[in-house]
């Protein structure tokens, strides 16, 4: 890896506390260094993909599955690679979140959390247009779906033509009406629906009665990951290493389209700034950032070069996190790499932080 500016941290979970955090409400963006300083982090880096434009949703909200201290705050669109931190113990697994609303004996699936109903970033939802296949950085659309908003959302929910139900902390229906927006009540939630899903929601929600919401996170092997305090998850793409060998799941993650090799060519096959995490044979978390877009100084890595680097560092599993202008790493609260945005350090969505043991 000649001519590259690489920062690497290897963390033994017995010696420090590791977690994924948004450090506050979900619909916001912060710099990695400011979060690191606020939390007193030994090391911090940017984590998953997130919404960057108001045209596609709420800035800072993760694109994929996200869990902070046991609370599911965003869903992925089908199975995707994820970094799981369970009481400080890291693992990498392909995960899928399932959320269901139940009214008596009837139920309906929820397709998203804390996003605009009908707008699906990165695609991958059955029935979506223009494709039901996963497509990194492409926006798809759903004509019928339910979306859940949590009390950690942090801003007004969207208004529109669909239905809206407000629930209190006991899942009792407080109000039923049009998609009017507003704040999520403390400890409660709001469910919005469009199309046939919105019609079902309005017909089954009765003020004063319960409308139960169940949430489940499972691996593609069928193992349930309990949503509990001490669990945090960040999702990105693609997986890079499995069982100590290069295993780039770029097609399954929607990073590459085998029918159109020009799709995301620059994203995957041209050197870019990268943030990478892996786990070695001793269960230690490996955090790596590689600066890029600096000719003659540090050009970054391709996906294949990322995998080779993580193999050389002893990673048994590894995955790509958000990169490009998002790539940032802070040590003791100070930024130590050279970010690639011309405006300076980019405010990101969520973060992997390493904290001193209590």
Describe the structure.
9% of the residues lie in helices and 41% in strands. The protein is mainly beta and 358 residues long. The chain has a domain at 1-48 and 236-358. Strands 4, 5, 6, 7, 8, 16 and 17 form a seven-stranded antiparallel beta sheet that branches. A six-stranded antiparallel beta sheet has the order 1-21-20-22-18-19, covered by helices on one side. Strands 2-25-3-23-24 form a five-stranded antiparallel beta sheet, covered by helices on one side. The chain starts with 5 loop residues before the first strand and ends with a strand.
Order of helices and strands: EEHEEEEEEEEEEEEEHEEEEHEEHEEEE
Q: What percent of residues adopt helix (DSSP H or I)?
A: under 10%
Cα-atom Rg, whole angstroms? 20 Å
Overall residue-averaged pLDDT value: 96
Low-confidence region ranges = none
**Total beta-strand segments:** 25
TL;DR?
By secondary structure, this protein is mainly beta. It has helices at residues 32-39, 195-204, 265-269, 303-312; strands at 6-11, 16-21, 43-46, 66-68, 71-74, 80-86, 89-103, 106-110, 112-113, 119-123, 134-141, 145-150, 157-167, 173-182, 189-194, 212-219, 231-235, 239-242, 245-246, 274-280, 285-290, 315-320, 329-331, 334-335, 351-356. The chain has four helices and 25 strands.
Keywords:
358 residues, 25 strands, 7-stranded antiparallel β-sheet, 4 helices, mainly beta, single chain
Q: How do the helices and strands line up, and which of them pair or pack?
A:
Elements: E1 6-11, E2 16-21, H1 32-39, E3 43-46, E4 66-68, E5 71-74, E6 80-86, E7 89-103, E8 106-110, E9 112-113, E10 119-123, E11 134-141, E12 145-150, E13 157-167, E14 173-182, E15 189-194, H2 195-204, E16 212-219, E17 231-235, E18 239-242, E19 245-246, H3 265-269, E20 274-280, E21 285-290, H4 303-312, E22 315-320, E23 329-331, E24 334-335, E25 351-356
Parallel strand pairs: 9-12
Antiparallel strand pairs: 1-21, 2-25, 3-23, 3-25, 4-5, 4-17, 6-7, 6-17, 7-8, 7-16, 10-11, 12-15, 13-14, 13-15, 18-19, 18-22, 20-21, 20-22, 23-24
